[in-house]
Amino acid sequence: IQEIDPSPLEERGSLKNILRPWQVQFLESLGIKTAEQLIISEKKDPKNIARQMKSWREEHHLVKARTKKCHMALHIWARSAKVALGSACIEAGEQSKNAPAYPTGAE
């Protein structure tokens, strides 16, 4: 059996390959380090994360943003993460389809 190289999944799951550096810094400050964690966190408590983003932006002297805008941005980031993870899974699936079949000994 040919093993699937996990690197495409890991690379696409990295927030650094999906988001801007300041966005990654913000999410890492909350302990969110992967695309999967972002998707789960966005589903669990988006309003709280949006409030934290608003405060974080002010603390880091970025342009002020309303909580609603932060909530929308978080939703867009999570959707981008889903797309990135989905394309990585499709790619991994194609690799496994192209792998030679496991010999059954019946041949």
Summarize the structure.
This protein has 107 residues and is mainly alpha-helical. It has one domain. The protein is built from 5 helices and no strands.
Name the descriptors.
107 residues, mainly alpha, 5 helices, 67% helix, disordered C terminus
Task: Report what the structure shows.
Helix 1 packs antiparallel against helix 5. Helix content is 67%, strand content 0%. The longest helix has 32 residues, at 67-98. The protein has five helices and no strands. The protein is mainly alpha-helical and 107 residues long. The chain has one domain (7-98).
Helicity range of the residues?
Answer: 55-70%
Order of helices and strands: HHHHH
Which band does the percent of strand residues land in?
under 5%
Q: Roughly how many Å apart are the termini? A: 16 Å
How many whole angstroms does the radius of gyration measure?
18 Å
Low-confidence stretches: 95-107
What is the strand and helix layout of this fold?
Blueprint: H1 7-13, H2 21-29, H3 35-44, H4 46-59, H5 67-98
